[in-house]
Each structure stands twice: as structure tokens, then as C-alpha cells.
Amino acid sequence: MASPTTTRGPESWKELCADPALQDLPYKIETNVRGQLVMSPTYQYHGRFAHLIARLLEDELPGGVAYTESAIRTSQGVKVADAVWCTADRWEQIKDTYDAPVAPQICVEVLSPTNTEEEMAEKRALYVEAGAEEVWLCDAEGSISFFDPDGPRESSRRVPSFPSSIARD
Question: Helix, strand, or coil here: 79?
Fold first, then answer.
């Protein structure tokens, strides 16, 4: 079996998920276009915001499925959205995959201090290319920015009642 850092495609992500050396790391793991591991440390608030956003999405859009840490296959490697929401039909397409071949309709990134504007613009484009209708960014203070394929929006198209900020608790 080839090293997970040099293989590409869905099988390499499956290998990464099964690798005991990569279990319980305090990092978010993604891959780049060359199949190399990209690891980003996260703060505790990161997981809390992702959880709160997923919970709010599930409350606001009860006809679908919301969850955290969704691995999504993109043209530039596997990216992991911090929180997502998808319709029941999309969930049926992706629920049994290691890395979703199509993105959930809403993908949310909780920003870390190391994230750059360029990196987030690239991720937004990759999620949209993979099938996302909207990509949201949540900063360290809980402010949420909404984007669709045309760029920034004042609010979400799919769930206009979603708050533009959430309490950090």
C-alpha cells in the first residue's frame, strides 16, 4: 500500500481515515492537490462555533441534515468544512462516503488565526465547484459572512433568518 501522503483520490482519504498514527490528533487534517497532508491547529472556540452553527442549521432547516467536520472531495484535494447542511436527497448521496463526492448545499468554515483571505477565497471556490450553494465564514468573534457563487451576500439565500453573528458563550 502506498503512503497516504503520496496517493491521490478517494482511496487515499480512506487510507488516511484508517491510519492509526493519525487518530486523535488535535489538528484538522486536509489534503492538497498533490495528496499531501495539510494540518491546521484549532482553538477550542472553533469546535464550539461549528457545533452551534450545525445545531442552528438543523433548527432552521428541519428538512435536511446538519453536522460538523465534513470531508469533501475537491479538485484541489480533500477539504473539511467545519459545519454543513444538506438536503435529505444530498445526504442519501454522501452519507456512506469517506469524502463526499459532492458538497453539502451549505458549507461553513470557522476561521482560525492562521487562515488567510486568499486561502478562504480558494476554499469558497472549491466548495462551490464541488456543488455547494453557499459558503459561510465565521470569525473568532462569531460574526458570519455569507457567500454564494456570485460573491458576498447580506444573508443566506437558503435560510435568510440565520443570524449574522452567534454568541461565543
Answer: strand
Residues of the chain with pLDDT under 50: 1-8, 10, 25-26
Pick the CATH number of 43-153 from 3.90.1570.10, 3.40.50.1970, 3.50.50.60, 3.30.990.10: 3.90.1570.10
**pLDDT tens digit string along 95-136?**
999 899 999 999 999 998 888 999 999 999 999 999 999 999
Cα 133 to Cα 163: distance, rounded to the nearest angstrom: 18
Q: Which residues contact 59 (CB under 8 A, 6 or more apart)?
A: none
Q: Answer positive or negative: Cα dihedral of 54, 75, 99, 32.
A: negative
- Note the pTM of the prediction, 2 decimals: 0.80
